[in-house]
Amino acid sequence: MMRKYQIATIAGDGIGPEVTQSTIRVLREACGSNVLDFEPFEGGAAHYRKTGDVLPKDTYAACRDMDAVLHGAAGLPDVTYPDGTEVGNDFILRLRVGLDLYANVRPIKLLPGVASPLRGFDGGGIDYVIVRENTEGLYASRGAGIVLRDELAFDTLLVTRAGTERIARFAFELARKRHGAPRDGQARVTVCDKANILRSYAFFRAVCTDVHRQYIDVAIDYAYIDAMTVYLVKRPDFYDVIVAENLFGDIISDLGGATVGGMGIAPSGEIGDTHALFQGAHGSAPDIAGQDVASPLATILSGVMMLRWLGDRHEDERLRQAADAIDAATGRVLAERRAVPRDLGGQASCSEVTDAICQALAAA
Ligand code: ATP
Fold first, then answer.
1. Quick check: CB of 93 below 6 Å from ligand 1?
2. Residue 263 Cβ < 6 Å to ligand 1
């Protein structure tokens, strides 16, 4: 019997519902209607406003027990805790810690037909993956920072050997499976830190260097975060896999996304040893929510990552083929400018982009 997969599906806030609906349509078109069960669950900032609960128990249990998680977006700027931080972020932060989703994988790839703001780069010229440590770093102390007498504040940066070893291994394993940097074909892991200033980052670098001893077929390279912001603009083709602490990974992911078309096209997968969650790298974009103008591409491409993760985990060739088919269909739609979303300079609505990808899939 053919295996079916249960996908815990949380549409969430802002543009979340539109882009999730698009992704479900595209994934069903590619896999057939009988392979993936998208089970809807509540969660996020609007849900918190209604119920006081950002991540309901049954949603958490579904994310833990089902085969994978598909998420739209969480967060609304006016739904905050008394300390001023946004409630919506807790939805994802609790899942990251609870399900131990330690690797936040952010592919940065320039697709044919998409104009990069960097002159001289076109389709295929930028193709690297940021592996952001997702459970430690500066964000580990969220909710536990201290504000004293309204005069000073602390948050703590956490780096452990075990946490750094596993994210480094993840990065080297990924580099082994890829085809190297566009510039020279070299499999390379760049460790991005601020080792010249803080001990915690020097430790992160040292542990990555230790792990590299088991991966001497992959080149290791180092860059300070400030220099990295320059390199990702000047020579993005040099990069293959970049491993970074949580905060730094967050920042360079947005920078990288901007070089390949913006947040509307940047996917992400948050992956642990047994669980994984997939969502676009963007937030809930409340300014454009409910107008059918958001780009669904980031979420659709995150869905492609989900199919590959499930396909590898369960050795299910159907899913890997469906992933390849969606990649190809999306590539055709953009390269031939059949439906280009507004953030990429086109006129197509969220549903028109979705229709065009489904048609390209059906025609393949
Ligand atoms: P977060 O902090 O949750 O990442 P944010 O408020 O920093 O969220 P986003 O919600 O990602 O930022 O969006 C910033 C802006 O980028 C939006 O206001 C919107 O104009 C644009 N944007 C984001 N995602 C998309 C998308 N999928 N399609 C089109 N435009 C988008």
1. no
2. yes
